[in-house]
## 1
Amino acid sequence: MSLITPSKNDAVQQLYTSAVPNSDAVSIGWTYPAPQNIAMSSLGYLSLFQRMDQNPRIRATQVSTDTLLHYQPNEFDLIGFSMSFELDILAILDIFHQWQLPVIAVERREHHPLVFAGGPVPITNPEPYADFFDFFLIGEGEDLLNELIETYQDYQKIHPTASRHQLLRHLAANVAGCYVPSLYQIEYASLSDGPITHIQPKYEDIPAVIEKRIFSRQEMAQTVTQSPFLTEDCVFPNTFLVEVMRGCAHRCRFCLASYSMLPARGPQLEPLKEAIRFGLQYTNKIGLLGALIADNPEFPELCEFLQHEMHQRPDLKLSSASLRIDTLTPQIAETFKQGGQQQLTFAIESGSERLRRRINKNLKQDKIFDAADIMARSGIKAMKLYGMVGLPDESDEDIEALGTLVQDLKKAQPKLEFILGCSSFVPKAATPFQWQPRPDNKTIDRRFDILNKMLLKKAKFRPSSTKWDFLQAVLSRGDRRLTQLIIRFHQFGATLGSLNRAYKSLCDEGATPCPPPAWYALRDRAEKDPFAERFPWDMIHLGVDKPLLYQEGLPPKSLTGV
Ligand code: SF4
């Protein structure tokens, strides 16, 4: 049974058959911390819902911020959150309040459901949210989620009076990828301004390190993750989404999408074609998803297939996530042009070849001009570039190089529209740049200003918010001492200016709850000895050992001359 509750638009078309849940099925509220029209655009969230919905041992219900009051939390045995962004925690705290669920996990009583989170954020660093959740799922959910719920049910049947603590301990000991933060002891050099010195499980049967669960390469080759629903009321209206690649093998040193999803994998051509043909029975819009879709080894053949389909069906519309600029060919540009796309997006990060080498984005300048030329010839109207400001070893000259590059592109292709979107560097846990400091907000704003002036009347410039990026940087390398600060920040309205106010108000009450926000966001964590302190996320292993990550984050020999 599918339990979607329609919000504004009740025309949600389900493209698969649900299982009828058993009478003793485990009930789960599968919750997206945003309105339903956003949830309906998240392929990861929806495809995991489908897997649960097809399992008769599970009664799954989709919940979003605009449908949650249709339910009482106690209707569920488990409440699971899909967490894609650090700042999702603010919407999750709202949901706890609206449901009157205790915010702190250990304050929940036996009658409360167990509350957990999975997704890209908790996979890499769950620690700033450790006190809010009973457990986290570390890894790809395809097998993990169903296995977790079945283990939960089996244990409940044998031990119907087991306490929450016993149940959590059983899950942590028996489900690989289940991390229960309350079962770990964390020690600090100093609570108010010192790093972590020890991370230790409290019991012998609890793993010291949680290995990320991976959906196997073989299964992935044959299984296409695709839209289980279609609706007009979402970010990609009536678009059948198909995952063409998962992860990215290029390993740009800042890139969470790459390091958190290694190894890069994708489905083979035949299952992809089959999925697209299936989607085309219901809609004329196909969306190709993946960190880098052109890295699928059979992408040229996929383009051929799509061109053939468009020939048969001229109303077919095609959209894609961002492409790698040096993989653009006339065939790819033509495919997307034919599919109705007026703009293609490429992340180049920097205008300077030196800095691109520093971050392992080994992209030659002439490839960028070649791509603009290919686009102009194909008749596509706009080229959107993504840049990043504040990268390690960046100077003002590198920023000027980015402005000059966009100016020169405009000179070379005057008919093409150029848009430069720019974010600021957020050092992410589990990447080679996890040790690197983030520049202060003044430096970043000054560099955004340089770009703004250089691109006036030549290109559209869209910088991100420095203050929100700073908050992301606090959380991305944060630890569980941040709990009270997050709660107070949320109480103060979670506005751009309220982080420091929240920290000060906690300090004024007499206790310093955690180091100041800048200690988390801006600190160089390799200054003395890169391995002297334990990182909050050291109990999570995503597949690359810490010494190797550190080596990969150093400047390449071609730049240092060593
Ligand atoms: S090419 Fe793009 S997706 Fe791949 S590692 Fe680099 S930034 Fe990440």
Note: The two ends are 63 Å apart (CA to CA).
## 2
Amino acid sequence: MFFMHSKVNPIYFRNLSTYDRILHFISTRQGGVSLNGQSSLNLSFSQETDAEKVLENRKRLAGKAGFDLSCLTLAQQQHTCNVALVTPREKGSGAFSNTGRLVETDAMITRTPGICLMVMTADCVPVLLFDPVENVIAAIHAGWRGTVKRIVSETLSAMHKNFGCRPENILAGIGPSIGVCCYEVGTEVVTEAQEVFDHPRDFLPEYEGKPHFDLRSANRYILEKEGVLSGHIETIDLCTSCLPELFFSHRGQKANTGRMGAGIMLKE
Ligand SMILES: [Zn+2]
């Protein structure tokens, strides 16, 4: 499979691509050097023992997407709803090793050019935000916990508090994640989601009597409720579990998998 897909070919959002001031990307699993479950463009040191392979994969992605590896800034991603304001001091956190990643953080915002905020996923939802009026960007990791903790709301609120961003100006991209087709959930998830949403059944359909959680729609709903315009939100409706040649899937590969990256940067 590795030889068939020897090129790094990120996916891009159409709405974010209209602005030359930023770069962004969502990587697939194709075009890297990792093997087995991590084949091939695994971006996470936590998922394999050979750090050199991860570094090579990150270099390939950086080369393709057009940023320097030293700009890459990463969070620990522990399913919190904590948002970090990234300043030049944090630039490059976690770029070359796991040490230094922003602790207890699942979303990052910045107005500093030259900092590539990247979240890593393998089923969870990556969300990228850009406010072209205030020139502020955000990268968000939203699994089911982040979704029900409304991490996208927390991020919008941090953008407003720190930079005066208004939701109606913000563009949002919701990336590939496990789809409602493949995301059967248990009672814990159903109970928590029911407490958060006005119409939880919209996001928790039952297939053959079993509840499934529609993470992408739930995050879109929260963004719209916060005032982000529907026409400013672009969703890439691809399921990571249904497309094993294109994406890593934690559930689809029973945890023996790698991580994709969704990144955004204000150009210098
Ligand atoms: Zn699916």
Note: The longest strand covers residues 125-131.
